[in-house]
Write a structure and sequence with these properties.
By secondary structure, the chain is mainly alpha-helical. The protein has one domain.
Length: 253
């Protein structure tokens, strides 16, 4: 049953990515919405789940929060290191860090976008594992988790394609990451037929991933959304994205 439901998540993920592709003429609105969706997923879905699953404390601080901060810092460090490396490479080639020098739009390193999209794939894989585990506990819990997974996988597909393309990756690579993200919950749900993931490692992963996602939303996507179009409509899209995730979480509860 869990695998069948995961097929719905597969379709919703592709629908989210397709939507992100089709509205390129309103790129600032797409980025504003993506930033809001990511902020909502982190604050209203991932972090509460991580705190509940990884309940241990380290020097008085929940382990999930420590990993949340670690994920934020790790993403910042990786992005800076890649940017410095690409800038140095461009200078050596005499390209000045342009597209031929290996950097994407605005001097961003495409590897960062692929890494971020890969993290979304990992998140979707865990969604599938959570879906399968919920159906093992009982039908009622399985339905509740299925509703949450299927609904917010639209946002996952939207964000996966946006993250990959934002950093200068071409459509082929962005689409490949989208397809991988769509397949991930199906693979995750099928894996629960063989084993069950312990709760604490899952919570640790969600905390770390939440920090990474928050960095990308706050430091990259939202500033980019308002860079050329500091419009009220962009801000409304961001607020609406948070509201959508809040609605999804409320319905799932």
């Amino acid at each position: 049953m869990a695998v069948i439901v995961a097929l719905g998540a597969f379709l919703m993920t592709l629908a989210g990515g397709w939507t992100a592709q089709r509205v390129t003429d309103r790129r600032h609105l797409v980025l504003g919405l993506a930033g809001g969706l990511m902020l909502g997923v982190v604050g209203l879905d991932l972090l509460p789940e991580a705190l509940e699953a990884a309940g241990t404390e380290v020097f008085g601080v929940p382990a999930a929060l420590l990993l949340f901060v670690a994920g934020f810092l790790a993403t910042h460090v990786v992005e800076r290191l890649l940017a410095v490396r690409q800038a140095a490479h461009g200078a050596q080639d005499g390209t000045g860090g342009g597209a031929e020098g290996g950097t994407g739009r605005g001097g961003r390193a495409p590897q960062v976008g692929l890494t971020a999209a890969a993290a979304m794939v990992g998140h979707s894989l865990m969604d599938g594992v959570a879906l399968g585990a919920a159906f093992q506990v009982g039908g009622g819990m399985g339905v509740a988790v299925a509703l949450a997974v299927i609904t917010h996988d639209f946002a996952d597909g939207f964000n996966t394609y946006t993250l990959a393309s934002l950093y200068g990756n071409d459509r082929r690579k962005a689409t490949a990451m989208l397809v991988a993200d769509a397949l991930a919950p199906v693979v995750g749900a099928a894996s629960t037929l063989l084993f069950t993931l312990p709760e604490e490692p899952l919570g640790a992963y969600l905390g770390f991933f939440g920090g990474a996602l928050l960095y990308l939303a706050a430091a990259e996507i939202l500033p980019e959304a308002h860079h050329e179009h500091p419009a009220l409509s962009t801000l409304l899209c961001t607020t609406g994205g948070v509201g959508v995730i809040w609605l999804v979480v409320g319905i799932a509860e």
